[in-house]
Specification:
This protein has helices at residues 37-49, 85-93, 102-113, 163-166, 168-178, 188-196, 200-224, 239-255, 274-284; strands spanning 3-8, 12-18, 24-31, 55-60, 63-65, 70-73, 83-84, 96-101, 122-127, 131-137, 140-142, 156-157, 160-161, 228-232, 264-267. With 286 residues, the chain is of the alpha/beta class. Strand 5 and strand 6 form a beta hairpin. The relative contact order is 0.15.
Amino acid sequence: MKILVLDIGGTFIKFAVMNERAEIFQRGKIPTPLNSRADFFDAIYKIFKSNFAEGIAISMPGIIDAERGICLKSSALPYNDGCNIVDELEKICGVKVTIENDANCAALAEAKIGSLADVSDGFVMVFGTMIGGAVIKNHEVHKGKNFLAGEISFLSVNGEMFHKNCSVPALLKSYAQIKNLSIEEITGEKFFKAVTEKEKDALACLDKFTRQIAVQIFNIQILLDVEKIAVGGGISEQEIFINLIRENLEKVYNSCEIKFPKIEIVPCKFRNDANLIGALFRWIAP
């Protein structure tokens, strides 16, 4: 059996045709339609029609009622607010469709067979257009009464939401401002090339960025007392990003009057594919 798995983000829709063993036969990506729900469904239908599949599994940002298939709220794609995406796509495509929050998908993959498989309680942070978060409790994703558990993008930090300063676009924006460039001139590749070349401004931006993340990791540890935190998203493939989080978290611990146990920070095992694999698991066992 082949399933079309979609990882829908605020910038791209990444897709893969996978079997039930998570083997990938084909993959690709297209820009995420930003204008309307009609464009959104049309884009998915075109991917489906060009990739033979017997089902569709979706990972996407937002507050998702996975049982009913409804996107309750999506800051990244607000035209989907209140939409029963599962019902609509099953009518259009005629196959079984499932949907789940993107960070919950990443957490599901990591908790079952990834970097959190060896702990009962953990947390996943996924850095992209926003910041995905998910709580693992007793090896399962904990969603909360209103599906808000782990939604760290919306933590209030000095009067601003966490993602305003700690999403990937926020990092690139801060660097562009220092270099007096437009945000369109700075890509993740260009930024990390500058980091690799040890450019002073790039290193300073990344250090400040990871320092803010480390503070929130400490807060998550105090609130949830999890055993391990896995960090994902494309940026997690940069080893210096994970290392600087660890270094800055060590500084947070050292500044505390009370000596707390030190939490382990690890990259998501499946990196950019974590959302795809978790969405597949959700389709197999909804």
